[in-house]
Predict the structure.
Amino acid sequence: MAPHRDDSPPVPCAAAGQKASTASHLLFRSFKVAPHMVSSGSGIHLRLADGRSVIDACAGAAVAIIGHGNEEVHEALLEQARKVSYVHTQAYSTPVAEELANFLLDGRPHGLDMAFFVGSGSEAVESAMKLARQYHFERNESRRVHFVSRRQSYHGNSISALSVSSNVARKVPYQGFCYPHVSHVSPPYAYRYKTEAETEDDFTGRLLRELEDEFLRVGPETVIAFVAETVMGATSGCVTAPRGYFRGVRSLCDKYGILLILDEIMCGTGRTGTFFAFEQEEGAIEPDIVTGAKGLGGGYATIAAMYVHERVIRALRRGSDAFNHGHTYQAHPLSCAASLAVQKIVRRDDLIRRCRRMGERLEALLRTELAGCRSVGDIRGRGLFWAVEFVKDRTTRETMDPALSFGGKVYQAAFERGVAVYPGAGTVDGVRGDHVLLAPPFTVTEEELAVVCRVLREAVESQEKLYL
């Protein structure tokens, strides 16, 4: 997605300079710029209507994990469509929905016992917030109404999901309209928030003290959950937490009876090199609720999931024996069929391990290609989920002038050279800072990664000549 400031709504990843058509009745994200028309997709490539081919180095929005145009998934969709394309889950279920849940949660990994399938990441976060509230309600703790989240986070575009988010640009029109019982603490964003005098452990300790202080400030008996991206996504750009952070968070939540919701909409489903991103965190933590989307359906259908720990399920069984929530298109059979086909391919072809291996290659290429770029301040990430943060001065880490939209210009320069990356603005505090994100399909080759990194370097250098 292209960068957006307070006065500029987000536009799709492939947007370039063409004027929005007045003939179309389709409401785009921007009235100023229309997205490019895509005629077809195959593997890592998108074919545009004007004949150009673009390498999709961001997999749309970290979605297309097995690439575009996979015939095996197409056949699974057709097979399910011939059986039944829709049922209302208040009265019915389908074998494909049951099989998908069982496939993902076989053996109750990390205590996660049940999956709830919806249509988008925003719906998954909404569902998680409601379930967390109901969990406390069933336990006669109805005073719990508050959520704590982190600055520079993003959890979705519905009102409640946006409320726990901290994406400044997206929230501007909705000030005073969001869920009021939310507060935010500092992100575990070492490049910007750790002081020079602090060690990594010092930084972790300070973040945990701040979180506990916030619980105490609002009253821990009023807090429903702490909501956090395991690896922070597009708003701050692939930020990983310091050593011991999530272990400490889990301990604090347990201390005060607060649930831990990990948002893995973007970073999960193998994207960072393990199916659940939290599996790589120190301390073998078990979250109470996890959300996942993006790569879950690989872009072949709209699907997201909420994975629920058995202790939360037990509370509902002992209380009302129901989850007081639902959607018309919940566990949609075609979406579940697409997701099941994608995830079977991922497992059969060992693509998560491949993601880890190719991620190591991507990191090495980025560090080599961009070593001489004066504007590159930080390169960070995990698996096939990497961000490059731009600065005006590498020594002081001074940001570019926000009006320049440097990340957007790098994106545009790369797109003109045939590579689509995912730019972001307001990286540091919602206003200052620029980055681009790379999240190619797990099927990407070393040769394709080399092209992507070379083109990115050329794009960065072209803008440095103009603005530095």
